Amino acid sequence: MAMRLYDTLARELKELRPLDGSTYRFYCCGPTVYGPAHIGNFRTFVLQDVFRRTLETGGMRTLHVRNITDVDDKTIRDSQAAGKSLADFTACWTDRFHADCGLLGLLPPHIEPSAVEHIPQQIAMIGKLVEKGHAYASEDGSVYFNIASFPGYGKLSHLDKRELELGKTQNVRANADEYEKDSLSDFVLWKGRRPEDGENYWSSPWGEGRPGWHLECSAMIKEYLGDDFDLHSGGVDLMFPHHENEIAQSQCACGGHFAAHWFHTTHLLVDGGKMSKKLANFYTLEDLAAKGFSAMEVRYVLIGAHYRKPLNFTLDSLGAAREAMAKLAKGARALAAKAPAEARFDAVGFGPFQAAWDSLQDDLNTPGCLGGLFTGLREAAKLEGEDAARAMAAFNRLLRALGLTLPEEEPEAEVPAEIRAIAEERWAARNAKDWAKADAMRAELSAKGWNMKDGKEGYELTPVA
């Protein structure tokens, strides 16, 4: 069964099949490296990683391209404030991004181009747009895309047709890399050199300057994926204007259809509101590690809501993720103990975990898959021998698809001496068949926050959940 995924452009679920019949080629808008990526950024990157892993788990070959934005308004502004060259400043934050990706278990993209490395390709694309009448130079040496020249502008975000009347765009220009979401303007392709740019400029047929942010992705996509490719992904906040602008400049310059499928992830909220430094709810992996949470617990939370629904991130949700992963690990250890040590299976099907796999295949339903793991472990607990081994292989395949690494050992709670003494006394009463005393002492343990589970050879103490 082919995976189905919602297409933002078509507004419907579509089956994913590679255009070339062999390799599924997709592009993800990467980070702007002017500071540490926050958990809102990583929600998108983690879900893109699960998307790729799901395709590959299903047997499809992929080509994953994700860019690095290392020249734009923000990187130039902040590098100069830090007193560093643009290259040194962005290299530092690129390294930090890669380190965080490693902690979160993200597969590295097959190709990771940077904007600065592809300025010649960007200049060439601008030249084509000018030559074809889709772009024009201004008096300050900047070059703008004329959106009135592209009748299809707005089809991705379904802008109101009335807003696309040609008169609305006459002599209205947006020179900033990022601008108001309701601003319908001719957007900048090449930004003429300005004093605030410092030494960050390049030569072009229109004078010294630098590329506009929207152009960068189009040029890198052209270089590595061509005029037509399978899928383009990014956060929903990039749909307009960034992705609309990509479609316009790419189709006008190259003549292809550009992306056959659009995959957008929805916003992350923190404690029910927008994340911001001002509200002290702006979290990076480093921030959460300082509070005692692992990157894998963060990953579990980030995939815990469907990609088309907002995710409300809280510190309590990280605690719940820790408990959930511990339960999965405990169930997996119990299942592995029932499988022959010599049994090794590359699962063909998913057995008791089929519903979990089906959830991923149906619009990347990650919460459905997580629920299916718990249900599958309960069903698999009835299995023995090679059947248990096959189920374990299927469980591990799903963990790889989700990119989850479970804790290896169940953490042992430190039992206070007082609790241990009560437990020992109760165990003695039980062995003496003094059931009334044993029951009373079990109740005393429970009141103090501890469960006591009896076994044939001894007992186990665990904190009350």
Radius of gyration: 27 Å
Low-confidence stretches: none
Structural class, from secondary structure content? alpha/beta
Number of domains: 3
Number of strands: 17
CATH architecture of the largest domain: 3-Layer(aba) Sandwich
- The name of the CATH superfamily of the largest domain reads HUPs
Helix content: 40-55%
Would you spell out the secondary-structure blueprint of this structure?
Elements lengths: L3 E4 L4 E4 L7 E6 L10 H19 L3 E6 L6 H9 L4 H19 L14 H13 L3 E3 L5 E3 L27 E2 L11 E7 L16 E3 L1 H13 L2 E2 L1 E5 L3 H16 L3 E2 L2 E4 L2 E3 L14 H6 L4 H8 L8 E3 L1 H23 L16 H8 L4 H15 L4 H18 L14 H15 L3 H13 L2 E5 L4 E5 L2
Parallel strand pairs: 3-4, 3-11, 7-8, 10-12, 11-13, 14-15
Antiparallel strand pairs: 1-2, 5-6, 6-8, 8-9, 16-17
Describe the structure.
The protein is α/β, with parallel strands linked by helices and 465 residues long. The chain has 3 domains: 4-265, 3-Layer(aba) Sandwich (Rossmann fold), CATH 3.40.50.620; 269-402, no CATH class; 417-463, no CATH class. It has helices at residues 39-57, 73-81, 86-104, 119-131, 213-225, 239-254, 285-290, 295-302, 315-337, 354-361, 366-380, 385-402, 417-431, 435-447; strands spanning 4-7, 12-15, 23-28, 61-66, 135-137, 143-145, 173-174, 186-192, 209-211, 228-229, 231-235, 258-259, 262-265, 268-270, 311-313, 450-454, 459-463. Strands 5, 6, 7, 8 and 9 form a 5-stranded mixed sheet that branches. A 4-stranded parallel sheet has the order 4-3-11-13, with helices on both faces. It is elongated. The two termini are 40 Å apart. The model has no long low-confidence stretch (mean pLDDT 91).
